[in-house]
Specification:
This protein is an all-alpha fold. It has helices spanning 2-14, 16-22, 24-29, 32-56, 59-65, 69-90, 102-114, 117-129, 132-160, 165-198.
Length: 201
């Protein structure tokens, strides 16, 4: 149960539904084979980073980066809170134009869209609540579900893009906003945990 809970939290923060909207130009322009190759690379890169942080835990911040994990939690929580609020209320969707070598595209997708303070913090929290093997499984499960969700959207999008693309994008945007509610909620939880860690009394 804890493994499923941990995996679902990371999946919600990854929010593949909003990522699909952000990468709509990539979905439109690349063939299914090219798109799948790019997304697999992006998810593998992200998965490796998340597993490292989940296994290394809080010590990686204090021993390597010389910062307290509580500060990182607060910063990550603030970023995801801003993203959640903007996704729900503003309705502004940033369309990312991605061109060039698939390897470079995969890296540019992984770093700004997937590897962020919130998802890294979630990975560390997963590692602190589960044994290392289970934490790795939880991260891999979340990454796998995210990859499958985006690929399924590509499969649905391609046949409908000539007739009902606007309607399809609208439904995905609405569903992404619903997921953003949970993103904002978890962001508040991250900030609260960070405050407790920095000021326990």
């Amino acid at each position: 149960m804890e493994l499923l809970k941990a995996s679902s939290i990371l999946f919600v923060l990854l929010n593949p539904f909003l990522i699909s909207i952000y990468l709509i130009s990539l979905i439109r322009e690349l063939s299914f084979r090219e798109f799948m190759k790019v997304m697999i690379r992006a998810h593998v890169i992200s998965g490796i980073v998340f597993v490292i942080f989940a296994i290394a835990g809080e010590g990686i911040f204090e021993n390597i980066f010389n910062v307290r994990f509580g500060a990182f939690l607060i910063f990550g929580g603030l970023i995801f809170l801003w993203i959640g609020i903007q996704s729900i209320f503003s309705g502004q969707v940033i369309l990312i134009e991605t061109h060039g070598d698939p390897g470079h595209i995969a890296g540019s997708i992984a770093m700004p869209f997937m590897i962020a303070p919130g998802t890294i913090s979630a990975s560390v929290l997963i590692g602190s609540s589960l044994p290392a093997p289970n934490a790795a499984i939880a991260v891999i499960a979340a990454i796998s579900f995210s990859l499958v969700s985006i690929i399924v959207f590509k499969l649905i999008h391609d046949p409908l893009k000539k007739r009902n693309e606007r309607l399809l994008n609208r439904y995905v945007e609405v569903f992404g906003r619903v997921v953003a509610l949970f993103t904002g909620t978890y962001a508040i939880e991250m900030i609260a945990r960070g405050v407790v860690l920095l000021w326990p009394n």
